[in-house]
Amino acid sequence: MRWPNALKAESLRCSFCRKSQDSVSKLISSPSDYPRAYICNECISVCVSVLEDDRGSSETSDANVEVADEPHPLLSHPLASRLLAAVERWVRQESLGIDSAEEFAEVRDIAVRLMRAPGATK
Ligand SMILES: [Zn+2]
Fold first, then answer.
1. How far is the CA of 69 from the centre of ligand 1 (A)?
2. How far is the CA of 17 from the centre of ligand 1 (A)?
3. pTM score of the predicted model
4. CA torsion angle for 102, 108, 114, 117 (degrees, to 10)?
5. Could you count the other beta carbons within 10 Å of the beta carbon of residue 47?
6. Are 95 and 67 within 8 A, CB to CB?
7. How far is the CA of 120 from the centre of ligand 1 (A)?
8. How far is the CA of 62 from the centre of ligand 1 (A)?
9. Which pLDDT tens digit goes with each residue over 51-77?
């Protein structure tokens, strides 16, 4: 992958899709600034739909389910924190302009396992 050498650009960009802050409605930054990574609302939507695909099979509820108090069940999935950690490493590599093929492979691997795993893994 070849990213243009434009890290000095002043406008912030999503570390996933590289859209600039101006072209998305929300850009969320990583909790740590070492190095700072960003994700936009569009990429978050994609992540959420990927995660929710896993639930879809066992639930036949209508599209707009408002989850009130309970945390998302996938958040308590044992692989969820590993997936997030892998995504974080991937974003970090990407934001540094380092080849992130390995990190991406790990993200993909964990995501596949998470989606295949039965709901109640201990
Ligand atoms: Zn994005």
1. 27
2. 4
3. 0.38
4. -100
5. 16
6. no
7. 31
8. 27
9. 888 776 555 555 555 556 666 666 777
Coil, strand, or helix at residue 13?
A: strand
3-class DSSP state for residue 40? strand
Q: Ligand 1 centroid to 122 CA: how many Å?
A: 32
Query: What distances in angstroms separate CA 9 from CA 12, 56, 116, one per listed residue?
Result: 8, 41, 40
22 C-alpha to center of ligand 1: Å?
12
Pairwise CA distance, residues 76 & 86, whole Å: 16
Q: What is the largest CA-CA distance in the chain?
A: 48
| d(C-alpha 116, C-alpha 111), whole Å | 9
Token pair of 4 as six digits: 């243009």
Are 19 and 40 within 8 A, CB to CB? yes
